[in-house]
Protein: Exo-alpha-(1->6)-L-arabinopyranosidase
Amino acid sequence: MARTDLDALALNALTLEQKASLLSGRDFWTTKPLEEAGIPSITLCDGPHGVRREAGGSDHLGINESIPATCFPPAAAVGSSWDPEVAARIGAAVGREGRALGVAVVLGPGVNIKRSPLCGRNFEYYSEDPLLSGVLAAAHVAALQAEGPGASVKHFAANNQETERMRVSADVDERTLREIYFPAFERVVTQARPATVMCSYNRVNGVHASQNRWLLTDVLRREWGFTGVVVSDWGAVQDRVAALAAGLDLEMPGTGGASDRRIVDAVRAGDLDEAVVNASVRRVVALTERRGGVSGAFETDAHHALARELAAECAVLLKNEDGTLPLSAEARIAVIGEFAVRPRFQGGGSSHINATRVDAALDAIRALAPDVAYAQGFSLDGSGDARELREAAAETAASADVAVVFAGLGEREESEGFDRETIDLPAVQVELIRAVAAAARRTVVVLSNGGVVSLEGWHDDVDAVLEGWLLGQAGGSAVADLLFGVVNPSGRLAESIPMRLKDTPSYLNFPGEAGHVRYGEGVMVGYRYYETVELPVRYPFGHGLSYTTFAIGGLTVVRTGDDRATVTVRVTNTGDRPGKHVVQVYVSTAAGPVRRPVRELRAFRKVSLAPGESRTITLPLDRRAFAYYDVPLGRWVVAQGDYTIQIGENASSVVAETTISLDGDSLVPVVSLDSTLGEWLSHPLAGPALLRVLSGGKGARPEEDDENGLRMASSMPMGRFLTFAGIDIPHATLRELVELGGSDGAAA
Structure:
């Protein structure tokens, strides 16, 4: 029987060489066994929206053939479902397939924030919002691990671009890390307890993530309580000994024993404590509990049907003028575009799944309507005469009641390993859309893309737009279901669609230069920026249309403590079709000493309603819903003040709101001689005492001229102010003032 819990006696029986061998891979995908100690090898493989178990040659870029598995909708699509049940059902199905294929750890999900629409790997990530990303990822991880295999939430941390991803330093202030780039990881770790966390390639504030002790030990383990294995991204380790000391347990892939020898040499030279090795060995051995072997099976047809059902939950109906959609089965329909027959349904790179089958949208549309013509419109490989293809498509569209154009991006435009240079659709597709729209009675555009694309230059010419993202292997059938109203669209944007690339908050700081990328926009990422500076977008975060209508009423907010509340709202389906609505709760406040976005998503729920049905939804707002991260205090703080609770149709449109006052945290700031004069004067205890000293014991406010002088000097550190102004305060008095300010008085 395999040993999976290493007690002290068993650990002491292992040689240092044996222990070191357990901390790196045997090869590209498996760990080393120690058969004499009953420790098995386990297999890790790429995910997260399917199982990429390679049968032959090994690679990390999805180049080699892998065993057929179901390709479910990638995270870019799942994010727009706004539904943790969708994420959970995908996670569970991936777990079943992983178990059937003998996989112990499926690498995923990715929860990195969509800082810029240019990131080439955005198709693997959920959202520009950390709450939405974290809730969906936690549901995925919990469901996957319930099936047996472990998950590997990635890429920790601040991995938001592909340009120079192996070495670029993401230079991010701590408040921004804590409020934007950490929370999704934190939620997954604390709520779903993933088996592993994968460190990223990049450096964070100059230190490689693989050897960043603050990230891997101080934050991940000590603050969040992570007890699993920290695994490297494949090839991310710069210095194996430094990485182990920082908290990285398992290096992947194997290095032919080179890393093992470095660990042994470092311990014997006294440069590495063997206790560090022992701790990582215990965690890696515990991970082998997930080995299980090949067990069970998965029904390919059932999983394909599941992929179709879930894909339909993820597409977003952006525009639908005059009820163009849903289509009538009796209509004459022209389907235009090569994507209709050669679907783009997943991203390129390490998550590229060898799908069990693939549905083409044209076939699915023809299964629902008898009169469907097709024109290629453009070629994905650049072959053929673009003008002839475009003119033939326009002619086909002119003889139909409605034209449906399938447009989007190919893997040449977006993939792991490189970032995009533009958010525009290829020019040949824009020209095609405009030509078809000019010829057709009505025009619908269906998009297939992993990251946001611009709608400018053609949006106003068409009648309807369905953002399909990448919908997995059954996406073609799911799109047909949506176009004909077999399924009512219910997706909402998980990222904003800007008017222009230069409008995006990271535009001037992406992808960086000279080995550094500065996160100069701070917490103002995505909709937080657009709404705060009142910059219009084409479609805001949270936007999405339906074939039915909904009404919101009865908003009430009840305080349940000094720093929390409960929101109740009534949702009614006022249309004539069943549908799903996403209740979006935002919090808006100016409380506290830091600049805050005009509103932030703090709770959401997707609710299914029959025509005429109403449902009352109650959502809790915990402490973190109102908090900001206070860097000087090193903790989350709820400031005393007013907080407006808003129900948004999306991030730009508030349909109901109410304001509450919270007592928040009782904070008395600490001041020292390094604090400014202004901070001293505003201190509730030290301020009045300082005024008494400066006024010769009178305790009165200074005269107007003196007060103006104090105001001018308010930004000076206290120590320098006293010297500059020639004020001689007795040492004992100064010490008393410093102690009143909360300091230990040592500086005095």
